[in-house]
């Protein structure tokens, strides 16, 4: 006999909420029962529509998806857990480490519930394939990583909630760079040493629009990140250099379709006496079409609820550790750190 569908509510119908809504509506194990957004006008297709997230928690639900601005994410996650619901929330888990701590405390009070955060990039096919190659050992061990995650801002960028410190908590590093930092952690674990330059280089906003970050772990592996909202071209690049070759991910499938075709380049190291073209080893180029990542991460959330197993990707531990890394990066730039203390 088939199990009853998991009844879910969705809080927040911005860009990410719309992406999640489409997945929830078509998932065979889920039933979307209630949606919440201040801009909603009426109930549609039998789904309860409300303006206040508390009204969602009054509905008979098993789980809640939280797709809201950072200033209310932690509050809603805590309330949903306290009401006995499993929770899937977008990253980041809040504006700051105090928000994260409040979420962790609520989770600890309800160990029977599942809490997952949407660190979606780990589910992209290019990342999964690159990780499998690294884990196989066929290209040796990782020497260094380089990541560039840039977007062009756009007209009205400075007026969006992501550009307002009291709502977002941080700028492009917290909003977008956090994904690349999470991938750095996937491939190289935790980082001990940090050097950074963080600043507002172009946009008239009170959060950072660029972050240049240099990291090193206890094994001596180094990672460099440039996270930017003044790159003037939507760019995703992750380079992984290993003792026996290299992997390069360029482009990534997103809901905006603006970062270019998702591609993985795989190459073995060839020294001058091993290659016909000096400095140009043979490369295998793998193209990826479509983006199953949204479905895959919801599948894992559903599996955790059904089986009682632990969250493997996007756990509260992952969220806490990457948020701690973000705020250590802020603190490692003395000029930015003094600025934040002055304004905060």
Task: Provide tags for this entry.
10 helices; six-stranded parallel beta sheet; Dihydrodipicolinate Reductase, domain 2; Rossmann fold; eight-stranded mixed beta sheet; 2 domains; alpha/beta; about 35% helix; about 350 residues
Q: Can you characterise this structure?
A:
There is one protein chain. The protein has 344 residues and is an alpha/beta fold. The protein folds into 2 domains: 6-113, Rossmann fold; 121-290 and 324-343, 2-Layer Sandwich (Dihydrodipicolinate Reductase, domain 2). The protein is 34% helix and 25% strand. It has 10 helices and 14 strands. An 8-stranded mixed beta sheet has the order 8-9-10-7-11-12-13-14, with helices on one face. A 6-stranded parallel beta sheet has the order 3-2-1-4-5-6, sandwiched between helices. Strand 1 (6-11), helix 1 (15-26) and strand 2 (30-36) form a beta-alpha-beta unit. The longest helix is centred in the middle third of the chain and has 17 residues, at 172-188. The relative contact order is 0.14.
């Amino acid at each position: 006999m088939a199990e009853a569908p998991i009844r879910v509510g969705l809080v927040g119908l911005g860009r990410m909420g719309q992406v999640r809504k489409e997945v929830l509506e078509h998932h065979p194990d889920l039933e979307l029962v209630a949606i919440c957004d201040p801009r909603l006008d009426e109930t549609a297709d039998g789904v309860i529509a409300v303006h206040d997230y508390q009204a969602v928690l009054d509905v008979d639900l098993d789980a809640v998806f939280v797709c809201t601005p950072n200033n209310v994410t932690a509050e809603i996650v805590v309330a949903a857990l306290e009401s006995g619901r499993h929770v899937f929330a977008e990253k980041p888990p809040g504006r700051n480490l105090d928000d994260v701590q409040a979420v962790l405390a609520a989770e600890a009070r309800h160990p029977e519930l599942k809490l997952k955060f949407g660190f979606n990039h780990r589910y992209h096919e290019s990342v999964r394939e690159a990780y499998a190659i690294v884990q196989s050992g066929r290209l040796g061990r990782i020497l260094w990583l380089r990541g560039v995650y840039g977007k062009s801002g756009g007209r009205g960028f400075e007026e969006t909630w992501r550009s307002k410190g009291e709502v977002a908590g941080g700028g492009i590093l917290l909003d977008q760079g956090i994904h690349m930092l999470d991938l750095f952690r996937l491939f190289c674990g935790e980082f001990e040493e940090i050097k950074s330059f963080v600043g507002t280089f172009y946009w008239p906003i009170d959060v950072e629009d660029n972050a240049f970050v240099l990291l090193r772990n206890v094994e001596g592996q180094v990672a460099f990140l440039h996270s930017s909202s003044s790159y003037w071209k939507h760019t995703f690049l992750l380079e992984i250099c290993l003792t026996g070759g290299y992997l390069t991910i360029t482009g990534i499938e997103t809901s905006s379709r603006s970062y270019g075709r998702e591609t993985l380049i795989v190459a073995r190291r060839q020294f001058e006496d091993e290659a016909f073209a000096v400095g140009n080893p043979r490369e295998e180029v793998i193209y990826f079409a479509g983006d199953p990542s949204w479905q895959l991460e919801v599948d894992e959330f559903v599996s955790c609820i059904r089986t009682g197993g632990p969250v493997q990707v996007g756990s509260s531990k992952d969220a806490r550790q990457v948020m701690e890394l973000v705020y250590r990066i802020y603190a490692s730039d003395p000029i930015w750190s003094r600025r934040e203390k002055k304004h905060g």
